Amino acid sequence: MNPAVFEIGKFARLTVIWLSIIFGAVWAACWAVGVFAPALINASGMPTETASLASEVLRALVPVVAVAVFIPINAMFMVLCERRALALFTVRKGPNRVGPDGLLQTAADAVKLLFKEDITPHGADAVMFTAAPIIFFAPSIIGVLPLLAAASGNHELFRSVNLPTGIFYVLAIASIPVVGIVMGGWASNNKYSLVGALRSAAQAISYEIPLVLSIVAVCLMAGTLDVVKIADQQKDSLLSWNIFGGGALLPYVNLVVAGLQGNNEQVQAIMQHFQAQPLGPFAAVLMVVCCIIFFGIYITGACAEVNRIPFDLPEAESELVSGYNTEYSGIKFAIFFLAEFTNLFVVCSIASIMFLGGGHAPLPGLEQGFTEMLGGILKQLPGSKEIFSPGWLINSLVNPSTVSQAFWIILKTYSLVIFAILIRATLPRFRIDQLMAFGWKRLIPLSLILLIALTYLRELV
Amino acid sequence: MEGFPQLTTWAQANVEQAVFYLLAVIAIPLAYGVVCDRNIIRSGFLLIGVFSTIAGLFILLSAQFLALAQIMIYGVGITLVVVIALMLTNPKAEKESMPALSIHKGPAIFVACFLFMCVYLALRSAENWPVKTDVAALSAAENLSRIGQSLLTNYSFHFEFASILLLAALIGAVMLAKAEPAVHDLNELSANEDKLKSSERADDVVKV
Amino acid sequence: MFGLVGRAVESLYYVCVGLWTVAKHTGRAPITKEFPDTMPDLPGAFRGRLALAVNPETSEHLCISCRQCERVCPDKCIDITAHKSPETGKLELIDFKIDHGLCMFCGLCTEVCPTTCIINTNDFEMSDYSREALIYDLKKLTLTQDESAHYFSKKYLPIPKPKPKPAPKPAAAAAKPADGVAAPAKPAPPAAKPAEGAAAAKSAPAATDKPAGDAAATKPTAEKKADDSKDSEKEKAAPEPSAAEGKAEPDKTEG
Lengths: 461, 208, 255
Ligand code: SF4
Ligand code: SF4
Fold this sequence. Notes:
The structure holds three protein chains of three kinds.
Chain A: H1 3-43, H2 48-89, H3 105-115, H4 126-143, H5 145-151, H6 166-174, H7 177-187, H8 191-222, H9 227-233, H10 250-261, H11 264-276, H12 280-305, H13 317-320, H14 330-354, H15 366-380, H16 390-397, H17 400-426, H18 432-460
Chain B: H1 5-36, H2 40-60, H3 64-88, H4 91-97, H5 105-124, H6 140-152, H7 156-177, H8 186-207
Helix pairs in contact in B: 1-2, 2-3
Chain C: H1 2-24, E1 50-52, H2 68-72, E2 78-84, E3 91-99, H3 108-112, E4 118-120, E5 135-136, H4 138-141, H5 145-154, H6 170-175, H7 192-202, H8 204-208, H9 212-217, H10 219-229, H11 231-237, H12 239-248
Helix pairs in contact in C: 7-10, 7-11, 10-11
Bound molecules: iron/sulfur cluster (2 copies).
């Protein structure tokens, strides 16, 4: 067989197996806590007051349970995926010994890390040394909650975490980890750690500005901070995604389609709209260009925020041993590791919700067709009303629109993750002065100019 | 928390106060630590903790936006920069050159008591410190747009003024940072002087 | 301004070229050698564990106890025990120890060895349970005839001139190299040396069971051939026998 097909096929198999494990586990946990347990409580004949309070508490806990189940398994998968994808890009094999085709490599690594000795270096500030990994990791648990609502298509179990401050909340929480890095680097009593931490702080603070500005641009186009609303505004098709101007091109594409179909009335209607905005087409194209550049700025800023190559100066191995986590070992190191990969996942899922249409399919009709098909199948099931019957089980487990949304957002997010790995396989590391110059002299002015341009273009379209 | 009517009422009845006291119990020792810790960098980190607990208090007051801004700007942005600036100093050397602190104790206690009395009296006299109650009744989303609107309408002057202040501070910082070209060694110095001289000479020639 | 935009576009273009280059290589059949399962195919010049070769044709031990390697080793990890044989009055190798725990595999010893006796093999799997186990003695260091032949051909080394022996006991020498049956080197007439080496290299399989004298008998014809076709080999071979001669000279008592 063609080796390319063979190797990529093996990688795809690994990804599919792990993803089904991850999301199967998350799905099952959410269902158990949010649907099954409340049903059990209601059926057990407790006093109604307590029973409904208890089931409400359980249902409110679902997002937390989902995140708590998701993060460790996902980090394990991402480490394995990164190693295997890097191997693919660099014509190697990658881990392929533990378990069938190396599937269990990172599970074994995780177990090994948990049993390693936990060392606190001499002269370290023990309290802060311990607090640092927690401060680094905790935000990635509480920060992703609003994203869950958008990713699950506003499923009723996750509706409660859909904050009106949505994306602002996510960004504010996502800015906390750098405190953990600086704290850990300072508390380690090690020069390398301290230099790594200072670099990380400088980098995170400077690249947060273009990152936030690109998110602000999206919020500006959407007119809201609410992630669910932002995702829903992009639901029509590829062209309404924010990366393609959030639907700026849509009327013109509609015009062409109507013209081709010979639908004169529609053409007339759209032409009237143009007469009101003579600069419209020009502005729309410019807006699309702006949005694509903003997407690039976001990806750059996000890579810098989560310390990925080419911005991994905080842990530049060749200069700083391992940067801020040099002195960490055992479970604390595992937590740093976990959080790093979770942060990568979070920034990629923010990108796919804010720019790439969230859980919505790229082509119109795809999502609706799938939902209707699955709904039709589910309706066929016998006895779907009766509690605890097989029909009820499946009906409460499978929500057609959530399934479709989850599929698309998983696809988009992990594609971005693999793109980040491709970048890692390609680009060398920046020098610190290049990094700062690039951030302050190029990215920030560029994003400010584009933001102003976008504000005016939005009025012209 | 829409969708959880019972939980919300129960939480309002039982949890809110508990959380308030919990935050207070965390915040006060942290604040004490900020003032009293011998290690100035550690007190910087404790300050971040204090700001975070205050953000928690804002959440209890259902001021989500304020809480998040508090975390993002004060907790992480500003305090972290302060901590890093502290790391770049040499606390031991500073300590040696500092005069004995005890002479400041009396005035410090006086100022602290004075400030406390001011705040206390202001809070006591409710009519001098009117607290709007209807704002909290707004939903969080309305709250958010209300903040945005008032920042750009009623309070736009204050808003702009604050940004000008920040801009001035920024420019000041730039001026401080590039005040003089750093002279690394004597060769460079003399080279610079030579250049200066030659330019002066050129100027002279032009003048002549 | 436009320069800046141009530069941005240009650098973006190069980044994309890089990404595309990496992406093009995606999924090519891996070049990984799965080491414990398949041994890597190492080049002859690979500097692995040290070993002492025997003459691939006559299986006599090549070491002449000249101690050049001991002297040149920067880590002082070679330890040679030799004495003057009471019967022949020549240096006789008793033991040869190399501490591989100290060795840094610089290969200097193999450079100076006049008889190409000490060589770097391709073997690198030497992990052991104690440091003492890394000190290899003569028995462990000496290669068999086949192994020597393998490395001589792999490293393109000229086959050394066999030492003419008064009482040839090749079988004993091959079986018990540890006994240090190092026959005294008897330098042949200088003119014959390169030719002899070349001839031996040419007719390796035939020469192995022939006595040394026979190989010498084919001298005249072989010399011409060697001159014609094996110039480079001759050049390589030339200094070594003469060096052997030089080293052997002080101990020369007979012939
Ligand atoms: S390879 Fe170098 S270090 Fe090792 S024994 Fe030879 S000369 Fe000494
Ligand atoms: S002949 Fe070679 S191995 Fe023997 S002592 Fe001399 S240099 Fe060392």
